[in-house]
Amino acid sequence: MSKGIPYDEALKRYQHDKEHTLPEMNEILRDYHPDYYPDSLVKLQVGINKGDLCHRQLAEMLQADARIDEADLAGTSITETNVLVIGGGGAGSAAALTAARNGASVILATKLRLGDSNTVMAEGGIQASIESGDTPQAHYDDTLKAGHNKANKKLVARMVMDAPDVIRWLIQEGMQFDQNEFGDLLTRRPGGASANRIVYYRDYTGLEMMRVLRESVSNSNIEVWDHSPVVELLSSETGHCAGAVIYSVEERTYKMIKAQAVILATGGIGRMHINGFPTTNHFGATGDGLILAYRLGAKLRDLDSFQYHPTGVAYPSHLAGSLITEGVRSAGVQLLNALGERFVDELKPRDYISAAILRECAEGRGVVVDDQTVGVWLDTPNMELREPGLMKQRFPKLFHLAKRGNLDPTKKPILVYPALHYQNGGVVIDENGHSTIPGLYCVGEVSGGIHGRNRIMGNALLEIISFGRRAGLQAAQNLSARGHKKSGIEHLTKLRRELSRANMPMDVKSPMLFPACANFELE
Amino acid sequence: MSEKLVNVTINGKKISAPASLSAVQAFWHAGYTRVEGIGCMEGVCGSCRVMVRRVNKKEVRMQLGCQTFIEEGMQIIFLAFPAPTHHAYQLSDMKNSWDVHSQFHKTFPETIDCRVCGGCTQSCPKDIEVQRGVELAAKGKFREAGELFIECVMCNLCMTACPEHIAPNHVGLFCRRVMAYFHLRPANLITRLEELRQGEMDVRTDN
Ligand SMILES: Cc1cc2nc3c(=O)[nH]c(=O)nc-3n(C[C@H](O)[C@H](O)[C@H](O)COP(=O)(O)OP(=O)(O)OC[C@H]3O[C@@H](n4cnc5c(N)ncnc54)[C@H](O)[C@@H]3O)c2cc1C
Ligand code: SF4
Ligand code: SF4
Ligand code: FES
């Protein structure tokens, strides 16, 4: 890591008004993007995706033993509901609200508190083609292209057609968006897109969304179970998903929830720290949903593809991984290496930009601090110079962050480095969020196929509401008169057999539930 | 960089940890378990409520634990999160914006009892003028009141501090929500919704 140019020296070379030329951008992904690190991938040996490539760290969790067996369930309390929603972020809330409003009884069980999620942290905004020069078709084309044409076209088409109505729905829940003086929604351009398409509320889009959705959920008849991580799903005699086993952190005991439909909305994977990168994600983003769904036999996809956000804070190190929204680059702020040179078009897709930053650092043009931290400059003072005061007004959260790090973004550039941000792949779903297992829906970041191998900004917040509502409606409309005859954890017997046949170490347990730093043990 | 260790007390436990750590991180650093009251670790979810007393200071402050960096001699106690309030309402129950004022006083009848004691404002980790927000809302100035709560993370500390059970943050959120529900009508969005309704915009997936 110590290769590069020392901080103080680099700061001297930095000029906010220098002109730069950009080098060509090819091969850079394959050479520098972490998805292509040698030895980081393995082939899965157990389960429906057997033979598929998967990141080593995720594979270890997918092929680990379950945390419970039959004995743990003896005498546990059982609660019944029509629809069980797992996860209290935006996807879970939208699904729960829609299911409840369509007549279903709903329990929403979540690991932390309702709203403690990646959703509340989102800053930049949400995509919807609403400007006159823009179309759903352009939104579709941009999404596919940024995802390297690997996305499921049907899902993308649904999502972009839903987008304007998603914004309307959010407004009707009481969410505000930034407007111009005539009341039109303001838009900005996401990296990798052909038009201005992001609508937003300051750099608090997720906070505004989540506090409104949380209030809606608490004002409904949805039963919310906080601090109730799901440790295993339940299966029925016919192979349906039939509920879940939760662990009550408060009562330190397992409980069963039986349901006719389950909507899994457990979000992302950042706290697995794939490839050792710092992360922008919340405390509960440990990839549990992937493991739970896989054990039941649900098909997964793109398990080797993750998004590294180009602008995580690199220094000071206690802020490492904290996100600086892409909105800052959309507003014209540039990236510079330690020589003060611009080295990439800042509005290219994220995977390119992150790879470009990693290249600068690997080739000695990064800024080095304390011999262990390296990064490149985010040239915020230049924006201040061009439009004094605007940055503070548009990006209040950035200024709070800077204050915590004793930085003044109007005077000094910020040192940034890529941070693990998003799980591109996930559970295979259809247009209503239904997985390949009957009765199991998966929505939000836990699902896969919408973003291909790279997501553009603003499509995640869109996806969670679009597919959250779809799954909620579908689940509520397809309730059978009688529930499942039997529900239990028989599927684990098969899992354990397969694990031992493949010689997997049985001492590793999953899902992870909480990051190791929190010193949490079950019971 | 070798970091200076500082000594603090968290939930009654004596801990020494590097000064760059937050209250939450220091507790973990010392090997203790804590998973409740932790969310974003970025100061936006409002879960990590703590009470803090600094050396030689009488005053006890309410803060967010993930944003509180430890200092020598600090005493920190994690606070549990209060149960949701009883202030229930449905936006759709209000027929039009003329009804908002009366619905507000039906849902939040306690606001007229506000003692203007400032307890809510003092306890807010986001420096929001909470008391003023409550006063404005009670007068029906919903737009103005709502604007004050832009950075509210719903930590409920103001609610905990309020002797009249007013739930000032929910008052603020009510104000914000009714403004969007009744008054946010963007022409660019509405035009596009109409075009979609007319079937003028389809997506071709074949190419
Ligand atoms: C810092 C940051 C900024 C972002 N900015 C943007 C942006 O500007 N635009 C955009 O479109 N996207 C953005 N994203 C991505 C986007 O916010 C997320 O992808 C999206 O909000 C995910 O929503 P979700 O509901 O699927 O998951 P989450 O919101 O993460 O919710 C998942 C929920 O499931 C719970 N959970 C997890 N495991 C379990 C379990 N075992 N049992 C029970 N519950 C469980 C979690 O505690 C959490 O409540 C950003 C992400 C981050 C981290
Ligand atoms: S207004 Fe109340 S809930 Fe909102 S941040 Fe301030 S103290 Fe917390
Ligand atoms: S704490 Fe309660 S009573 Fe005191 S000023 Fe605030 S809202 Fe009014
Ligand atoms: S953990 Fe979210 S505000 Fe502290």
Summarize the structure.
The complex is a heterodimer of chains A (523) and B (207). Chain A has 523 residues and is an alpha/beta fold.
Summarize the structure in words.
The complex is a heterodimer of chains A (523) and B (207). Chain A is α/β, with parallel strands linked by helices and 523 residues long. In chain A, 30% of the residues lie in helices and 19% in strands. Chain A has helices at 7-13, 28-32, 56-62, 70-73, 90-101, 136-146, 153-173, 205-218, 288-295, 327-330, 350-362, 380-386, 390-394, 396-404, 459-477, 491-501, and strands at 5-6, 41-43, 53-55, 77-86, 106-109, 126-127, 198-199, 223-225, 230-236, 241-248, 253-264, 300-301, 306-313, 335-336, 367-369, 373-378, 414-423, 426-428, 440-442, 447-448, 487-488. In chain A, the strands form five sheets. In chain A, strands 4, 5, 8, 9, 10, 11, 19 and 21 form an eight-stranded mixed sheet that branches. In chain A, strands 1, 13, 14, 15, 16 and 17 form a six-stranded mixed sheet that branches. In chain A, a hairpin with a 4-residue loop joins strand 10 and strand 11 (253-264). Chain A is globular, with a radius of gyration of 23 Å. Chain B has 207 residues and is an alpha+beta fold. Chain B has two domains: 5-78, Roll (Ubiquitin-like (UB roll)); 91-197, Fumarate Reductase Iron-sulfur Protein, Chain B, domain 2, CATH 1.10.1060. In chain B, 33% of the residues lie in helices and 13% in strands. Chain B is built from eight helices and five strands; from the N terminus they run E-E-H-E-E-E-H-H-H-H-H-H-H. A five-stranded mixed sheet of chain B has the order 2-1-5-3-4, with helices on one face. In chain B, strand 3 and strand 4 form a beta hairpin. In chain B, helix 4 (130-138) packs antiparallel against helix 5 (142-148), helix 4 crosses helix 7 and helix 5 crosses helix 7. The N and C termini of chain B lie far apart (56 Å). At the A-B interface, helix 6, helix 7, helix 8 and helix 14 of A face helix 7 and helix 8 of B. The structure holds flavin-adenine dinucleotide, iron/sulfur cluster (2 copies) and FE2/S2 (inorganic) cluster.
